[in-house]
Amino acid sequence: MVVSAEVFSVVHQITDALLQVTNQSRDDAVARERLLLQQQQIMQHDFVEKDIKDRQILADKEKAQMQKDVKEKELLLKEKQLLAEKERNKWIRIWQKNKLRQTEK
Q1: What gap in Å lies between CA 79 and CA 74, rounded to an integer?
Q2: Is residue 37 part of a domain?
């Protein structure tokens, strides 16, 4: 059986076309994999950024609450000091009046 050059040429062209399709399919698959990997990296980066931002917001809220608590405690302490000072002054005045009475007798 003798294969004509024309048949051989057609088979060769078909083989070349199949190789090109295979190569293109492989290249497309590699490109899709790269895109998927890039998307994953972007999503992971966004997730990490959001997590950092959320943690910073939480830390800022906690800091603000702590500062508020400290101010409240400082105000309470100041109020107690003022009350103690008033009470002390009251007892000093009582003591002075008693002392004055004793010296007048």
Answers
A1: 9
A2: yes
